[in-house]
Backbone:
């Protein structure tokens, strides 16, 4: 099964990623490969979080919480770890690369469709809203108390260019 996933992903990457659907397909395939190989998942600890972000509006898995606790929100939102791990993964497993700027634009476009909510005991505790801009993207990270009242906000702009 992993060989078939790898074959499909190589075909996709050889054709070039030009749509949001292709970004989602790539990240789903990567997520499957990470799930099938525990060692691979340890090598790329941040990658599942970024794969999950395009697939789920609510993140409450252990992995998401571990990423949020081990890195600053700014580090997560700048997406440097995502860029680095995606690049390393694609090279190591698929002998391929993506054009990061184009990929990131499509990725951000997907994220801008819905806010990411991190829940604790059924209550939204943190929320990330992504807005696509022409030359950059903006993420608003909000935190909430147990009653749902806003307790803080962080705004970050990230550039598509590296």
Residues:
């Amino acid at each position: 099964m992993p060989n078939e996933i790898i074959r499909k992903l190589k075909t996709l990457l050889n054709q070039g990623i030009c749509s949001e659907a292709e970004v989602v397909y790539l990240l789903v395939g990567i997520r499957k490969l990470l799930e099938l190989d525990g060692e691979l998942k340890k090598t790329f600890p941040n990658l599942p979080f970024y794969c999950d972000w395009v697939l789920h509006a609510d993140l409450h898995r252990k992995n998401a919480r571990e990423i949020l606790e081990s890195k600053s929100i700014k580090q997560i939102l700048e997406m440097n770890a995502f860029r680095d791990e995606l690049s390393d993964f694609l090279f190591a497993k698929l002998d391929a690369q993506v054009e990061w700027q184009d990929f990131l634009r499509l990725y951000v476009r997907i994220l801008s469709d819905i806010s990411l909510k991190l829940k604790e005991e059924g209550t939204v505790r943190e929320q990330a809203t992504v807005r696509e801009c022409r030359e950059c993207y903006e993420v608003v990270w909000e935190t909430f108390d147990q009653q749902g009242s806003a307790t803080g906000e962080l705004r970050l702009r990230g550039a598509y260019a590296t």
Observations:
- Helices lie at 2-15, 20-36, 38-43, 47-55, 62-70, 73-78, 80-94, 100-111.
- The longest strand covers residues 123-132.
- The first helix runs from residue 2 to 15.
- The radius of gyration is 16 Å.
